[in-house]
Structures are given as C-alpha cells and as structure tokens.
Design a protein that fits this description.
The protein has eleven helices and 16 strands. The chain is α/β, with parallel strands linked by helices. An eight-stranded mixed beta barrel has the order 1-2-3-4-5-6-7-8, surrounded by four helices. A three-stranded antiparallel β-sheet has the order 9-10-11, with no helix packed on it. It is elongated, with a radius of gyration of 32 Å.
Length: 349
C-alpha cells in the first residue's frame, strides 16, 4: 500500500468546487493539479454523488491525496460512510482521507471510519484541519503572486503542515511560483481519450419494443478489414427518446457482441430433443414449404353465402416493432397476396 503523501513541509491542497460543465474538463483539471505538485484534492459532500466523483479521481490520479470534506455528516449513516471510505481507500491505494467538522460526528460514524484505516482530519472553530500530524489552514485564494508568496511564507513560518486553497482559473499559474513543473501540468490538461474517438457514427432504431427509440452505433474498421462495434447509445437528437434508453435497449450491443449469440439458424425436427444448426437456404425452403402446406390445407375460396373471399385462415402474421412504414406496407401487401386475414403489428399491441 502506498503511504499517503500529505506534507512533511508546507504543502498545497486544492478544494474543488461542485462540478460544472464537461466532466472531461473537470477530470483534466485534477490531472493538471496533480502534475503541478498539489498535495491533495478536497471534494466536499455537497457535490453530486461525491463518492462516485472521488472514485473517478482515484482511478485517474496516482500520487495526489484525495479528501472528502463532510459538511453534513447526518446525511451518511455509519454503514454507508464506512463502506464508501473502505472502497475509496482501496481504489486510491491508501490515498483517501476524510475531513470532519468540529463535534458533529456520531461515535458510530467515527468508529466506522477508523475501522477502514483512512486518515481523518478534524476541523477547529477557525476552519483549519488537523490530522494529528500537522495543521492545515483553509485560506482564500491569493489574488496575485506577491500575495501568494506572503501567504505561503506566513503559514510556513507558523509551522503549518499545509494550506487548502479553493480552485480558481489562475491556480496553475500561481503554483509556478512554488517551483512545480507547470509544463508537465499544462501538457496533462488535454482532452480525455475516448474509446469512440475517431469512430464512425451510424444511426439506427432499437429492435425491441414498439416505442422505436433511436440509437447511435459507433464502429471502427480494423487493420484486417473487419468492422468492430465499439458502443451503442441513445440518440440525443431523437424526438422519440432524446438519448434515453431503457435497460433492455441499453444492452442492444449484446445482440452483436455477446459470446452467447446464436450465429446460425436453429432447427428442431418433429420428435427431436435438441436443436441443430442449419443453413439459411434450408430454413427459407422449410418456411416456404410450411406456408404452402398450411395455405393449401386452409384456403377458402368462397364463404357460406357463396361470396368469393380467397383467403387462408391457417396462417397469421405479426410485424416487428422496428418496422419502418415502407417495410410494414411491403409485408402487408405480401401477406394479403397470400390470402392472410389475421395480421397484427407489435407497434399496435
């Protein structure tokens, strides 16, 4: 387990605001701060899903400490708090810590945290935090380098272990004055590489229910000429689903990529106990033979009143929900031509 890196000399921690804008930019800021030499990143529990956000930061970073500042401990029952802390301690390889407000944490919550081995910072009335090894002062962001130097110098002389500074757009530039490798930091703040970067985008329709949600499929051509399906997601430009998918539609990619997918027609002969793989020619011929046999056996030329009806009552047809209007029209014409009267459409059901 990596030993947490909270400071032996004066260090700088950065308190992040609640996430706004693009997630990639938020994560890129953290990567840049770590490369610039920030000692710890603080996220308070008013953020949207703070434990999820800290888990993402644990996966992204390698050295920087990660601290969750609990502003409202009553929101987190002891079992949930302990479980989240243990998970983040494991994900970060020992870099996780918790900042607690003064005298507002229940004994069972404190016991749950201590059981995980996380570092615990307790705040005082002045807003500073102490983990038993040093005092960290929460300060306002200095407006310029002169104020930055003066502030850092004052707290360093006072024997503080570190300072906690709120994030602002000029923070990377101010850190340059502390001798950190800002070139590395700025080179780190690049777009996150996405699995679908550069992929071909194709639009489709979910094959399941009658709603007809729109999908976007991302594919990439491999060096051997084959096409790899990378991802399927809801189409945000569709007026039908506006990018949303139900759990079944969200797993549509498995139709193409699941190792359990059946890749050839299956046929079970009358009286047989199992299925066997057959060719498409066999299946199409078998369907044609069965349709003709049923039609011949049930065809009605005239009804009881002597009216010509030319219909078959032994076959029914059900159209799929993903049919387009043209496909539905074609299927209806074909079935009517065979004399079917029992036609249904899943979109109507």
């Amino acid at each position: 387990m990596t030993t947490p890196t909270f400071g032996l000399v004066l260090k700088v921690a950065v308190a992040l605001p609640a996430m706004t804008g693009e997630v990639g930019e938020y994560l890129a800021d953290v990567a840049a701060l770590e490369a610039a030499g920030a000692e710890a990143i603080w996220v308070d529990d008013t953020a949207v899903e703070p434990w999820v956000m800290l888990g993402a930061l644990a996966a992204l970073t390698h050295r920087v400490g990660l601290v969750c500042k609990l502003t409202s401990p009553d929101r987190w029952p002891a079992a949930q708090l302990g479980g989240a802390a243990a998970t983040l301690q494991a994900l970060s390889r020992g870099r996780f810590a918790v900042g607690l407000p003064p005298d507002s944490v229940l004994e069972d919550q404190l016991a749950a945290l201590r059981a995980t081995g996380v570092r615990i910072f307790r705040s005082d009335a002045g807003g500073a935090f102490d983990d038993g090894e040093g005092r960290w002062a929460a300060i306002a962001a200095p407006p310029d380098r002169e104020a930055w130097n003066a502030t850092i110098g004052a707290y360093d002389s006072a024997g503080a272990a570190g300072v906690i500074v709120p994030w602002n757009d000029r923070l990377i530039d101010l850190l340059r004055n502390l001798g950190f490798d800002v070139a590395v930091a700025e080179s780190t703040k690049v777009k996150q590489n996405l699995r679908i970067a550069g992929a071909k985008e194709s639009h489709s329709v979910c094959p399941y229910c009658a709603v007809g949600c729109s999908l976007v499929a991302y594919t990439r051509q491999n060096s051997d000429g084959s096409v790899q399906l990378l991802q399927i997601e809801g189409d945000p430009d569709s007026p039908v689903n506006e990018g949303r998918l139900c759990p079944k539609g969200a797993t549509a990619m498995q139709l193409a990529t699941s190792p359990r997918r059946v890749e050839s027609p299956q046929y079970r002969a009358a009286g047989a106990r199992g299925w066997k793989s057959v060719s498409w020619d066999f299946v199409l011929n078998k369907i044609a033979q069965n349709v003709k046999a049923s039609r011949d056996a049930t065809f009605v030329g005239t009804d009881a009143s002597g009216n010509t009806v030319n219909r078959t009552e032994g076959i029914a047809f059900a159209g799929g929900a993903a049919f387009s209007s043209e496909e539905g029209y074609f299927a209806t014409k074909l079935m009517r031509g065979l004399g079917l009267v029992h036609l249904e459409q899943q979109a109507r059901v």
